[in-house]
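Appendix B. Extra example for self-study. Work through it before the problem class; the solution is given directly after the inputs so you can check yourself.
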Amino acid sequence: MINLEIPKKFKPLVSQGNQVAKEVFRPISRKYDEAEHSYPKELDMLASLIDGMNEGSDMGGAGAAGVRREERAGDGENRNGSNLSTVLGIVELCWGDVGLLLSMPRQGLGNSAIASVATAEQLERYGGRWAAMAITEPEAGSDSAAIRTTAELDGDEYVLNGEKIFVTSGDRADLIVVWATLDRSKGRAAIKSFIVERDNPGLKLDRLEHKLGIRASDTANFTLQDCRVPQEALLGDPEVKEKGFAGVMETFDNTRPLVAAMAVGVARAALEETRKRLKQAGVDVDYSTPALSQHAAAARFLEMEADYEAAWLLTLQAAWMADNGKPNSLQASMAKAKAGRACVDITLGCVELCGGAGYGEGELLEKWARDAKILDIFEGTQQIQLLIVARQLLGKSSSELR
Amino acid sequence: MTTTTSDTEKGASVAERGMGFGLRALNNLAGSDLLDRLRLRKQVERALFQGTKGGFRSATAAGRTFKAAQQLGKPARQKQGRSTGLFDLAPDDEQRMFQEGGRAFAEAKVRPAALDADAACATPKELLAEATELGVNMLGVPEELGGVMHEQAAVTSVLIGEALAHGDMGIAYAALAPGAVATAIGHWGNAEQEATYLPAFTGEDVPAAALAILEPQPLFDPLQPQTRARRKGEEWVLDGVKSLVARAADCELFVIAAEAEGIGPALFVVESGAKGLAVEAEPAMGLRPAATGRLLIEDVRLPSAALLGEGKAEDYVDCVNRSRVAWCGLATGTAQAVLDYVIPYVNERQAFGEPISNRQGVAFAVADIGIENDAMRLATYRAASRADRGEEFAREAAIARRLCAVKGMQIGSEGVQLLGGHGFVKEHPVERWYRDLRAAGVMEGALLV
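Solution. Structure tokens for the complete assembly:
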């Protein structure tokens, strides 16, 4: 039975998320945009609350920790599970503030990586702790197979050496999931992820970035110098084989819809504010009158709202497929690509429509337009998503379509 | 509202204006020295003489007599669907059956007939009869009156439209147009109108019929049609022009939108035999297999019972929105056809020593087609499923329409672009899809879910 509405059972979660966004995030949104690098301490209490929500239900929560491909799905019965609920929660929270969402303790992308590929034993050991993700290096961004950080087995420990940049919440998290290669001559097959304790003496914080947007969220650069971790810190399978990298990349099939959801939330915030302001200016958006017979601003708004809806629906589709055990790599990238670019276009368009009010710091519209840009970049840029989509549609390997 | 029509044209009768369109075209032809160079002037002139002895316009089809069979005390209505409360993208078994039937028919029969139907500006009668056998014209007919669908079937209609338009949008339009009239009467008609007209749509000999809302003026707004219905005693008198009506010359029954005096925009049931109706061929950029025509309505007198249902404003808006969703279904299917066609093409076409799809410039265009097409489909499904459950769907219909108008056209354009010069010639269907996809943002009315 085709139905593209928010599932009834998740409505309480959506409404909770919306309240948190409205009551906790929005009031401190501008404050932490201005006070870059200061920790939003208001989030501690909230994080405990969300932990409680995750604990108390199988619905997932508002963070990334809940996403994991549903194993028992695939029996033909329709499931709405943690992928869908997480996406819905994130949309609401990012309607509040995406920078603050990214700063939420224990909801980092490292937590998703752990949730996606950790063994039961690792889940036990690292569960409940805040994990950041360290992939990018100065010389390797989208091409994550080209990373140079090395991991060498020495006795029952791995020794990590290299440099990592753009680590979201890197300074605040308890753990860093570090991508490193066991053997640079073996290419992607040798790339593994390792869990490093933040207080490991071999992990040195170089600096925190000053950024265009999401300034509430800290972005750290690290040097790993003879950083020793126990053998059990390697996530997943230690064997060097071609499928291993695919396993690491699988994390992203689960997290791309989450970033798409962030973009959807930010876009919705801008649209809602703009609709209100247009109304004050005497421009109503009407759905039954043809767009081109309305005020040009209304027609523009409709165009943007259509793109917003497209991004939202593609995001829900990707999450729903994950909940039902269907391979969704294609749909996850479609959602991320569409949501990333739509969010940038929409927030910038809203600033333009609202003019001086939109551009000034008196409102949040200009902030959303700054925050938006990262959503079309991290977790795979627009161009990387298009590559993934194109390869799948065309049936091409990464060596044919580079 | 200002128009560019000259004063003389404004004063002219509908008939004279009809003649005017033809004469202007003729004048262009006569002024062209192409005819002389090709030594064709004599033949063309003779053909014109034969073809125009009766004037440029023709009468509407004679049509059958519609008579009320057994009449129910109150109008029968399909039930609203119920929600399971869960998000779900899988069609139910019945919907899947229609979808698969539609797909098989589109692949085996529609696509192979599309090129010729486009050139001939007509769809073969046998093909339309086969489409009728799929049940496409009775989806909106309540069970009590011989229909097959217990519940409302907007999603089912979208799935069928999508499937048929994957074969060809113009043929899909021709095949589905009569069903729009049945659905309109089944949704909003009173008991007598249902009893009179619906039985004809449940048999084998389904009449050509059209839901005529669109008018030829720029910035046409279906909520403000220029076609007028004046009250004259117990009668309605209609005047106006309707555009791009499928199989206009064959239609036996019309449902016509007009600004009704004292009511606002409303629908009227008009049989083709009504005095004052005329049709004129109106071939267009695309949708050519639907043999589109203009319907000229001049002092057409109708009994008061011709007003569909109670002429409620919300029914009319509902109709306009359901039409838009139907066109979105077609656009989604045709856009998918573009994607399915360009993939093997760009994978096989070689340039600079490798398939052109190895280049990001080409591959990203394919990716964008895939992304936007998926979004068009989801937005359309959302609008249709809300309609089936009796929920508000004006917003969702408007959004689906914007996506299908803008992205659908982009997809049509990219389809031609990816084939380059080969896309521009009729050897490949992408130029036809380019022409057809423009319709999704233009058409109003004509189809219903």
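Self-check: The longest helix of chain A spans residues 242-280. If your reasoning did not lead you there, revisit section 3.
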